[in-house]
Specification:
Helix content is about 25%, strand content about 25%. The chain is an alpha+beta fold. It has one domain: Gcn5-related N-acetyltransferase (GNAT) (Aminopeptidase, 3-Layer(aba) Sandwich), CATH 3.40.630.30.
Length: about 190
C-alpha cells in the first residue's frame, strides 16, 4: 500500500471537506460536525454561529484558505484516508500557552483521523513522521502531542496514543487530568 502525505494547502480544501463530510466519521457520525476545529474554538463562535446550518464547515474552509488550520492529509490511490492537525502551539485557543515555553518554538499535534477501513495500517505513524520531519526543518524546538493516559478505544485515541508518540521518540513531559503531554526535542534551541 502506497501512502502519500501532503501538507494542507488551500488547493486541497475540497479533498479535506470530502474527507470530513463523507469518510472520517462514517462509523461515528455524531462527531461529523467537528471539522477538526475544537482546539481552535473561541467562545464567541457560539453567538456568531447561531442560526447557521453548518457553521464549522464554513469556518474551516475560511481557516484553510487563510492558513489558520494546518496539518497533513494522507492519500492512498488518490483519495484522502487520513488527517493530522498540527500547528504552532500558540495558534490553538484550547492550549493555553505555557509561559515556560515562551522562548521555545513548539509544534502541537492535536488530532489524527483515519478512514475506518484504513485503520491499523500505520497511517497515523506516517503522518506523525512527516510532522516531525517538517517541524525540525521549520526550526521548531519541540513537538508536543496530547494523548489520553492509559488504554483507550479507537475513538478516544483521536489525539493519538502514548505508544504512537513513544515509537516516534516522544517522552512524557507532563500529565494533566486524563491526558499526557508527550514531547519530542528537535534540537533547534
Amino acid at each position: 500500500m502506497n501512502i502519500e502525505i501532503r501538507k494542507l494547502t488551500p488547493d486541497l480544501l475540497e479533498d479535506y471537506l470530502n474527507f470530513f463530510d463523507n469518510v472520517a466519521f462514517a462509523d461515528h457520525p455524531e462527531w461529523s460536525q467537528c471539522y477538526c476545529l475544537a482546539f481552535h474554538f473561541e467562545p464567541a463562535w457560539d453567538a456568531e454561529d447561531a442560526g447557521l446550518e453548518n457553521p464549522w464547515r464554513e469556518r474551516v474552509a475560511q481557516f484553510i484558505r487563510e492558513g489558520k488550520l494546518q496539518g497533513y492529509l494522507a492519500y492512498s490511490d488518490g483519495k484522502v484516508v487520513g488527517w493530522c492537525n498540527a500547528n504552532d502551539k500558540k495558534n490553538y485557543a484550547a492550549l493555553k500557552y505555557n509561559e515556560s515555553d515562551e522562548d521555545s518554538k513548539v509544534k502541537s499535534v492535536v488530532c489524527f483521523l483515519v478512514a475506518p477501513d484504513m485503520r491499523g495500517k500505520g497511517i497515523a505513524t506516517k503522518l506523525l513522521e512527516r510532522v516531525c520531519a517538517d517541524a525540525g526543518a521549520d526550526g521548531y524546538d519541540f513537538i508536543e502531542g496530547y494523548p489520553p493516559a492509559g488504554d483507550c478505544d479507537m475513538y478516544a485515541a483521536h489525539h493519538g496514543t502514548v505508544r504512537l508518540f513513544e515509537r516516534s521518540g516522544f517522552v512524557k513531559h507532563a500529565e494533566c487530568k486524563r491526558d499526557v503531554v508527550m514531547r519530542k526535542y528537535l534540537g533547534n534551541e
